[in-house]
Write a structure and sequence with these properties.
Elements (H helix, E strand, L loop, with lengths): L1 H8 L8 H24 L5 H33 L6 H19 L20 E5 L11 H9 L4 E8 L5 E3 L11 H4 L13 H5 L5 H6 L10 H8 L6 H11 L2 E6 L12 H12 L6 E3 L5 H5 L6 E3 L5 H7 L1 E7 L5 H9 L3 E5 L4 H10 L3 E4 L2 H4 L11 H34 L3 H6 L7 H17 L4 H22 L1
Helix pairs in contact: 1-3, 3-4, 3-15, 3-17, 10-11, 17-19
Length: 482
């Protein structure tokens, strides 16, 4: 595509051979296949594109204006050539319309980071998900201690009930990914994790997989001592996590996973989780339950400030006594966040692992984020960029004015450049071989000769004998004698 535009800019005919056509078709098929595959694998992640535009929109606009301004050179070269044609008029109208649309695009750009600095809310606190899974094996005591080193305000964990009624931390439905169950219980490696007893689960190693797979390319940077600790980690129980939270005065967000129907504790699994909470000695205000469907069952046993993952009205928040709403980042829009804060409801967003997303949510006014990368977000002392509306308006207007001036200058220069070409005929162009002229005049004469021959239907082969036998000097002498 770029080479094709260069050919057009130089006024050369664009000839596509079969190799080029096959290559273009292959690239098109690969692109379509890739997009379909990505859509199938990460269909739920397309929302991140819309959110990313809140962070990159102003800069993408400036880049698009710069690109369209540069494209003006090619458009101007096409428009000012020869007689006016319908194609030239349509090309000019299309270019002008697109350029004007880009100039006015900031009217539709809405970014929470375009705000006065005085209106910026306090920095959102960070809640670690599964501890610090990029620094240590997830859902282990070592992982949660690593998270504490990053000054997190709380923990978030997925809780499963074992076959003998012990609550433990496990994100997956099986033990295959994060333990050595394939070595200890090879015939049960794909069995539901809740169907194992606690002694069986405790006998598994929950750290060697992290050193072996190095899922986040961080294990290689661990010290010998840390690698030794990681290699001896076991699955963490809920009581261990809650006692760590009590010791360090941290909050805990729990997501309970319902066991399968054949589970021995299928009717008692919520009671088992509540017993673990009570046995740990943690205050009820420090525990929040993530899912709404089982929250009602534990409310009477453990009274506390409520949390929800549903978007409710202000009246419903007040009626249920809800103080916190936990939303997926794709649902956390700036208007919704303002509405929640107006109802005195704090907002937690999950999962947030990238600094740019953390910055956008910070500007939006969220109170906390749940992250798998607390060590990354901790290094963000302020939003990546923050701009007042007046500053952005000034940049917008200056960019548009400079772009318009450059585009107009390109059209004027191209018209002046081509005007000299139209003032010569083929005889004058050939006389340049014997008359000393500037290099610019010679170039213009040669271009005029080419276009004149094309317009008059004269092929280059008709002139070959003349050029071969006599050269430019012979042609010039013949022209003078006539």
């Amino acid at each position: 595509m770029i080479l094709g535009l260069c050919h057009i800019a130089l006024g050369q005919q664009l000839n596509l051979y079969w190799v080029h056509k096959i290559g273009v078709l292959a690239v098109l098929l690969i692109t379509v296949t890739g997009v379909v595959s990505i859509d199938d694998l990460w269909r739920d992640e397309w929302d991140i594109i819309l959110i990313s535009l809140q962070s990159t929109g102003p800069f993408l606009h400036l880049g698009a204006v710069a690109a369209m301004t540069a494209l003006g050179w090619i458009v101007a070269g096409q428009v000012v050539r020869g007689e006016r044609t319908r194609f030239q008029v349509l090309l000019l109208l299309l270019y002008v319309c697109v350029l004007l649309a880009l100039y006015l695009t900031p009217l539709t750009i809405s970014s929470p980071c375009i705000m006065d600095r005085s209106n910026l809310k306090p920095q959102p606190t960070i809640i670690s998900r599964r501890g610090a899974p990029m620094l240590a094996p997830e859902n282990t005591v070592m992982s949660f201690n690593k998270a504490l080193q990053q000054k997190v305000s709380g923990f978030e964990a997925d809780v499963t009930i074992s076959a003998d009624g012990v609550a433990f931390l496990m994100r997956d439905h099986t033990l295959h990914r994060t333990t050595d169950v394939d070595r200890v219980f090879p015939r049960r490696q794909h069995e539901d994790a809740s169907l194992f007893t606690w002694p069986e689960i405790r006998s598994l190693n929950a750290g060697l997989w992290f050193l072996k797979d190095d899922p986040y390319w961080t294990a290689q940077f661990m010290s010998v001592k840390e690698r030794g600790r990681a290699a001896n980690q076991t699955v963490c129980s809920l009581v261990e996590l809650l006692r760590l939270a009590v010791k360090t005065n941290r909050t805990v967000m729990l997501s309970l996973r319902s066991p399968p129907p054949q589970h021995p504790r299928h009717e008692l699994w919520i009671s088992d989780a509540l017993k673990a909470v009570q046995r740990s000695g943690i205050q009820s205000e420090q525990v929040m339950w993530m899912k709404d469907w089982y929250r009602k069952k534990v409310r009477s046993a453990v009274p506390r400030p409520e949390q929800t993952d549903e978007k409710l009205s202000a009246e419903e928040f007040k009626e249920r006594g809800i103080r916190t709403v936990s939303l997926h980042y794709s649902q956390a829009t700036e208007p919704e966040i303002r509405r929640f804060r107006g109802s005195n409801v704090s907002v937690n967003v999950y999962p947030v692992n990238e600094p740019w997303l953390y910055s956008v949510l910070w500007c939006s006014g969220v109170d906390s984020v749940s992250s798998d990368a607390p060590h990354v977000l901790r290094k963000v002392p302020r939003p990546i960029w923050l701009m007042s509306p007046d500053e952005y308006c000034l940049i917008w207007v200056m960019a548009d004015v400079i772009s318009a001036a450059v585009v107009i200058g390109m059209f004027i220069f191209q018209r002046w450049r081509m005007s000299g070409m139209r003032s010569y005929n083929p005889e004058q162009i050939m006389l340049s071989a014997v008359v000393r002229r500037s290099s610019r005049d010679v170039s213009i004469m040669k271009e005029k000769l080419i276009f004149s021959e094309i317009n008059n239907g004269v092929s280059s082969t008709d002139e070959l004998p003349l050029y071969t036998e006599h050269g430019y000097e012979g042609y010039a002498r013949d022209t003078i004698s006539r």
